[in-house]
């Protein structure tokens, strides 16, 4: 049986500076050596993702683009589990030389933390 389609659509992206600023101003944080994840309840119906991958921290475009691809793919695979929050992912220096498996494990840990932190009260 084929896996269900989980596209990463344009509506699931943070695009404007004001959207990023809102998350930076009022957010919950989860950090490790590779990433700092900031989340804020969006009031919408879907989770949205914003990326902040600094050249100064990560290095050249090849490294930055690899990390962005891994983040987007991990988000796409976990989006059905995530609450309706705005998420900003900041890459930290540990991500620069980390292999793909380490990055994926780090992101999975962060997604679990986001689910716990932002779950609706029961």
Structure, described:
Keywords: Endonuclease, Hydrolase, Nuclease, RNA-binding, tRNA processing. This is Ribonuclease P protein component. It catalyses: Endonucleolytic cleavage of RNA, removing 5'-extranucleotides from tRNA precursor. The chain has a 4-stranded mixed sheet, with helices on both faces. With 122 residues, the chain is of the alpha+beta class. The chain is built from 4 helices and 4 strands, in the order H-E-E-E-H-H-E-H. Helix 3 packs across helix 4. It has a single domain (16-116), classed as Ribosomal Protein S5, domain 2. A hairpin with a 3-residue loop joins strand 1 and strand 2 (35-41). The radius of gyration is 14 Å and the shape is globular.
Offer a quick outline of the entry.
The chain is built from 4 helices and 4 strands. By secondary structure, it is α+β, with helices and mostly antiparallel strands.
Chart the SSEs and their pairings:
Blueprint: H1 17-25, E1 28-31, E2 35-41, E3 48-52, H2 55-58, H3 61-78, E4 85-91, H4 100-118
Parallel strand pairs: 3-4
Antiparallel strand pairs: 1-2, 2-4
Rg, Cα atoms, Å: 14 Å
How many individual helices?
4
Strand order of the largest sheet: 1-2-4-3
> What is the CATH architecture annotation?
2-Layer Sandwich
Helix content percent band: 40-55%
Give the number of DSSP strands: 4
EC number: 3.1.26.5
Family: Belongs to the RnpA family.
GO molecular function: ribonuclease P activity
Keywords: Endonuclease, Hydrolase, Nuclease, RNA-binding, tRNA processing
